[in-house]
Structure formats: structure tokens, C-alpha cells
């Protein structure tokens, strides 16, 4: 695997974990987040399991549903130890 593909895979795994952590910190189930974001629960599960790469539209929907700017979600995924606001 080339270095860029490796970096992308690592980022997507981190993003999946970040989204799950934020969802859980907000006390939301996958179903609740899916309803707020206007996507299916299966979509949330696939993203959190790393089985599907989220589109830009899906990421924007998720960030809105989580009341968190998308750049904060990305930053938390890129930087170990980065935090996000839990409201």
C-alpha cells in the first residue's frame, strides 16, 4: 500500500473513532444520531465500524447533528489528544 493510502486509512479509522466518541459523549444512540442527521442507522454503523467512507455531505450532516463544527471533528481525528466541546 502506498503511503498516501496508508495515511488515508489511518485517518478514516481515527475519524470513525472520533465520531463514535462524540456521539457517545452526547448520549446519543446510532438511531438518534441518524435521525438528526437524516441518514440511516446502518450508515452510522458502517462509518463507525470503518466499513464505509463518509461523503462530504454526510460529514456535514453529522457535524450539524452533533452541534459541532466539522473542522473540530477533523482536528480531533488528526491530532491525538485533541478534544472537542461537549454540550
TrEMBL record:
Gene3D superfamilies: lambda repressor-like DNA-binding domains (1.10.260.40)
PROSITE patterns: HTH_CROC1 (PS50943)
Presence of the UniProt keyword Methyltransferase in the record: no
Domain HTH cro/C1-type: 19-73
Keywords, in A-Z order: DNA-binding, Transcription, Transcription regulation
InterPro entries linked to this entry: Cro/C1-type_HTH, Lambda_DNA-bd_dom_sf, TransReg_Diox_bact_type
SMART domains documented for this protein: HTH_XRE (SM00530)
Taxonomic lineage from the root: Bacteria, Pseudomonadati, Verrucomicrobiota, Verrucomicrobiia, Verrucomicrobiales
Record protein name field: Helix-turn-helix transcriptional regulator
GO molecular function, one term: DNA binding
Keyword Nuclease tagged: no
GO CC field: cytosol
Amino acid at each position: 500500500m502506498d503511503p498516501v493510502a496508508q495515511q488515508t486509512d489511518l485517518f478514516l479509522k481515527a475519524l470513525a473513532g472520533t465520531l463514535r466518541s462524540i456521539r457517545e459523549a452526547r448520549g446519543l444512540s446510532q438511531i438518534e444520531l441518524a435521525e438528526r442527521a437524516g441518514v440511516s442507522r446502518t450508515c452510522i454503523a458502517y462509518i463507525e465500524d470503518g466499513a464505509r467512507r463518509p461523503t462530504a455531505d454526510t460529514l456535514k450532516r453529522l457535524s450539524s447533528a452533533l452541534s459541532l463544527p466539522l473542522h473540530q471533528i477533523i482536528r480531533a481525528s488528526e491530532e491525538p489528544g485533541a478534544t472537542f466541546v461537549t454540550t
